[in-house]
């Protein structure tokens, strides 16, 4: 059975006294791949330093850069900044070869917050999330689905999920949200 | 669930984030046309099938995405060490069952 879910409209998906799950509005995402020698050139072109440790985020205005791997970064920006980022990177391409790919439409963002938000995440995520510091993020797995998970605070997380997996993750979180409230 | 240390992320993480990728340190011949049929068969199919410490590749697929190498005891399932791809294989007598 094909289920058509609206993934473009930001809205609350589920709410209980345990946690609230919401779908956030679309943002611009870029996947940036660049070698160690060209990293500094990209940092100055973007105006935001590329973090070196995997999982670290750096923020400047509405632009956020997250290190996902030794040569892989995720760049988040507002729609108004996107053209500027593409232009700035294209300008230095000859001297600092890299790959900047627009992946905005690949993922959707879900926000999970509430007193049992951490417990709700453990339904699908095998990591020890208590060891993830506030303000950092990791690519990890959620019930078999690759997700990027940010810890915004003690009781607040958000995850980027590939859009084709989103209905599954959304329904799991919605179910969990109700079940945790019954305890 | 096994806990595996990713040498790129420098964290010890649950097995569910990783994928097994076969035996490590198997070199593809530079020019396959020059090797005999037996050597090519050995490259493709013949593996050590070790009972005990085994050099093997893993990929941190739901994480940094990198392939790395590990030494795992196939009897106890314990990881003796993990190291980045391209690094020389560690000598077995330097490793202990405590690993990591």
From TrEMBL, chain A:
Which GO molecular function terms does the record list? sarcosine oxidase activity
The record, for NCBIfam families, names:
soxG (TIGR01375)
A Pfam family assignment: SoxG
Source organism of this protein record: Notoacmeibacter marinus
GO BP terms: namely: sarcosine catabolic process
Q: Which domain of life is it from?
A: Bacteria
What's this protein's name?
Sarcosine oxidase subunit gamma
Q: Which residues cross the membrane?
A: none
UniProtKB/TrEMBL annotation, chain B:
The family database entries (InterPro entries) matched by this protein are listed as: SoxD, SoxD_sf
Q: Which GO terms describe its molecular function?
A: sarcosine oxidase activity
Q: What Pfam family does this protein match (any one)?
A: SoxD
Share an example GO biological-process annotation for this protein.
tetrahydrofolate metabolic process
Q: Which NCBIfam families match?
A: soxD
According to UniProt, the name of this protein is Sarcosine oxidase subunit delta
């Amino acid at each position: 059975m094909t289920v058509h879910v609206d993934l473009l409209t930001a809205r609350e998906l589920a709410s209980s006294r345990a946690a609230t799950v919401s779908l956030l509005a679309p943002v611009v995402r870029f996947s940036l791949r660049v070698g160690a020698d060209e990293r500094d050139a990209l940092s100055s072109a973007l105006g935001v330093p590329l973090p070196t440790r995997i999982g670290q985020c750096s923020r400047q205005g509405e632009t956020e850069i997250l290190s996902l791997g030794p040569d892989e970064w995720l760049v988040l920006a507002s729609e108004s900044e996107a053209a500027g980022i593409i232009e700035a990177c294209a300008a230095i391409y000859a001297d600092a070869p890299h790959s900047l790919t627009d992946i905005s439409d690949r993922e959707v963002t879900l926000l999970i917050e509430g007193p049992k938000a951490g417990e709700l995440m453990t339904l699908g995520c095998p990591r020890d999330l208590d060891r993830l510091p506030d303000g950092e993020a990791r690519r990890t797995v959620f019930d078999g689905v690759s997700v990027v998970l940010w810890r915004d605070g003690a009781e607040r997380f958000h995850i980027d999920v590939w859009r084709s997996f989103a209905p599954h993750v959304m329904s799991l979180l919605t179910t969990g949200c109700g079940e945790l409230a019954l305890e | 669930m096994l806990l595996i240390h990713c040498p790129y992320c420098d964290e010890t993480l649950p097995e569910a984030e990783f994928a097994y990728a076969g035996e490590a340190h198997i070199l593809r011949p530079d020019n396959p046309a020059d090797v005999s049929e037996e050597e090519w068969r050995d490259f493709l199919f013949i593996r050590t099938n070790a009972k005990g410490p085994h050099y093997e590749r893993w990929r941190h697929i739901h994480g940094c995405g990198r392939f790395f190498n590990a030494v795992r005891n196939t009897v106890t399932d314990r990881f003796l060490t993990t190291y980045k791809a391209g690094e020389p294989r560690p000598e077995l007598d330097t490793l202990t069952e405590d690993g990591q």
